Amino acid sequence: MNHLSRMSILLSLAAIVFAPLLIGCGGGGGGSNTDPAAMVPTLCAGTITYQDSGEQNILFAAVKGAGSGVSGWVEDQNGKKIAVLSYVSAANAQEVTLTSANYALAAGKYTLHYTVNTETFSISRELNWGAALPRFQTVPAPPTVSNNIISVGPVDVNSGTASYYLRIYSGISSGYLYSESAPIPGGVLSEYLPATDNQFSIMVVADVVENSQTVATARYLFTAASYN
Predict the structure, then answer these.
(1) 154 and 187 Cβ atoms separated by less than 8 Å
(2) Mean pLDDT, rounded, for 196-215
(3) Tens of pLDDT along 129-143?
(4) Looking at domain 36-44+59-127, which of 2.40.440, 1.10.1740, 2.40.50, 2.60.40 is its CATH number?
(5) Measuring CA to CA, which residue among 155, 144, 136 is closest to residue 202?
(6) Are 182 and 192 contacting, i.e. CB atoms less than 8 angstroms apart?
(7) Cα–Cα distance between 170 and 143 in angstroms, integer?
(8) Partners of 155 in the beta sheet?
(9) Does position 89 have pLDDT exceeding 90, yes or no?
């Protein structure tokens, strides 16, 4: 057998061995797509109370489980786009919060749109801001720290069944979320403090839930402080 014949046989064997591997690598091609069925959209009214400046009405919109490739926006009663969702990696969500300080929140129908893999989904809600919104029964006590774990509570709101959790924001980079604790039905809320910062803004969140949907939210934001 000459050299060329031997080389041809070796190349043929290599093609047989590696062909299934190449086919397997190319199969499907959609690994980066996101499953919309795994996402949870939220559009609700609520309040946020700042420790140093009092209460404001808010509109909160989010798509939980949506990665950075998902886009979303909120429209008001007139179909006008009023806010665009941003990716918050620590919450594994696209979300936005509008406050009455930066937008005139009026009662009416609002719509959340979000696009996944070129397909757009929408939910609409009749939102109203008033006395019926959930509020904390008492002002949350200042956070305490032990072994790098920050705790607040117990906390309680005045209406509905709520899911409570903490959000740990940077006290220096406004709006940057480091982490959030796992939601619980009440009691003391706790979360580890990041070691990468020494100034934090701690938010207490109470999401009122009906039929597995968040229908209203109450939030309390402590003034930025050092807890390390």
Answers:
(1) yes
(2) 93
(3) 988 899 999 999 999
(4) 2.60.40
(5) 144
(6) no
(7) 15
(8) 187
(9) yes
